[in-house]
Amino acid sequence: QQIQFADDMQEFTKFPTKTGRRSLSRSISQSSTDSYSSAASYTDSSDDEVSPREKQQTNSKGSSNFCVKNIKQAEFGRREIEIAEQDMSALISLRKRAQGEKPLAGAKIVGCTHITAQTAVLIETLCALGAQCRWSACNIYSTQNEVAAALAEAGVAVFAWKGESEDDFWWCIDRCVNIDGWQANMILDDGGDLTHWVYKKYPNVFKKIRGIVEESVTGVHRLYQLSKAGKLCVPAMNVNDSVTKQKFDNLYCCRESILDGLKRTTDVMFGGKQVVVCGYGEVGKGCCAALKALGAIVYVTEIDPICALQACMDGFRVVKLSEVIRQVDVVITCTGNKNVVTREHLDRMKNSCIVCNMGHSNTEIDVTSLRTPELTWERVRSQVDHVIWPDGKRVVLLAEGRLLNLSCSTVPTFVLSITATTQALALIELYNAPEGRYKQDVYLLPKKMDEYVASLHLPSFDAHLTELTDDQAKYLGLNKNGPFKPNYY
């Protein structure tokens, strides 16, 4: 039997002809090239090295009130936006219902979010409802250049491109705020950078803002700090902790996009890999569920005993990062905090450990500590760096510690429709609220509004709600039409 096996192997190795092997080699290398040139390549590639700030560009209407990578990509970007619209039916439905009333007529919204096809649908919805918009990016790597070009072509004053420097980032925000003859009266923020800039640099503008809508943990934390210090002179809506953001965008979006971002950048196989997820909030829960489903061995770190107990009940070992740092293959941060992964942790990691962040800000991994003479940085792919220690050890750092999914891949359109609809309704609510309804504080969305956003998305699943009878409603002490959950839920 052993001899027969050897003969079989000999026959097998004879089978491919030289021509066949060459053509196979060509097809493999070609498909490999194709895979790297798809997906995110149109946002990575640049036709020249000239900074967009140095270019003189105009759209087809002769306007130059924007700054994007290449206005000629507008047609391509328009197709991207049209694809996104197909899976954002609830937001489009809101646009159609309300565009006759123009509830945002007179609103001058300055925004700072990820500029993707999905947020473009939101921006164009706000314009259709009567608002004037000026927009910048909240992340230097997440802008889809062709989408920014499409927005600029449509007349939106957008200042953003993929790969901005830190100076570019703040310059873009400033160009949105500091303009003669245009006074912002609403802010839509993701991360708090825009709010912070206006508060610090343009206090007179800040005092005239009618409302702020913020959707990230980091930005909301900053708002609560301002409020506690008595320095928040405008009402703000905390969208991050609304049910339609927290329970959907944070959980389901991350459950699907964490794997996408890691696969595109590293081609890693998760089966049997040891992964530590820092933080077991909704983002951490989504990441852990996806990794566990693919056979990874998942550890969790937590500071909150309630979240830690949830992780235990879900079958994950709760540990300190220092206890497992030498053995894990992947480290993912999801906390919204700072210095969760320190230089000491990075020094102790095994060779080829992948390090990435799923929180909003770039503070969770101490990347600054890695920019020292004894370490060598080697760019391997777009948003993939090998940081090499003197002994040859390599750590694979993704997106320089910034948000993995939007920097390295894309996110599910449908779940972003839920957040975008919530943001639009929050802006409408704050802008149209009678004087005195909202004081100078941070508010959660009314639960009725959360439920309305959810109901708009149910038809996509052909879902049919059960209605309470009068007797059942009386028994529960509820209105038949909701809200069904208390405000603290």
UniProtKB/TrEMBL annotation:
GO biological process: one-carbon metabolic process; S-adenosylmethionine cycle
Cofactor entry: NAD(+)
CDD domains for the chain: SAHH
GO CC annotation terms, alphabetical: cytosol
Record-linked InterPro entries: Adenosylhomocyst_ase-like_sf, Adenosylhomocysteinase-like, Ado_hCys_hydrolase_NAD-bd, NAD(P)-bd_dom_sf, S-Ado-L-homoCys_hydrolase_CS
Domain S-adenosyl-L-homocysteine hydrolase NAD binding: 250-411
Entry protein name: Adenosylhomocysteinase
Residues engaged in binding NAD(+): G281, E282, V283, G284, K285, G286, E302, N405
Catalytic reaction list: S-adenosyl-L-homocysteine + H2O = L-homocysteine + adenosine
Key word NAD present: yes
Biased composition (Low complexity): 25-44
Keyword Repeat: no
Span of the signal peptide: none
Protein family: Belongs to the adenosylhomocysteinase family.
Organism: Nyctibius bracteatus (Rufous potoo)
An annotated Gene Ontology molecular function: adenosylhomocysteinase activity
Pfam families in alphabetical order: AdoHcyase, AdoHcyase_NAD
Enzyme Commission code(s) on record: 3.13.2.1
Key words, A-Z: Hydrolase, NAD, One-carbon metabolism
Cofactor binding description: Binds 1 NAD(+) per subunit.
Taxonomic superkingdom: Eukaryota
Pathways involved: Amino-acid biosynthesis; L-homocysteine biosynthesis; L-homocysteine from S-adenosyl-L-homocysteine: step 1/1
Binding annotation for substrate: T116, D190, E215, K245, D249
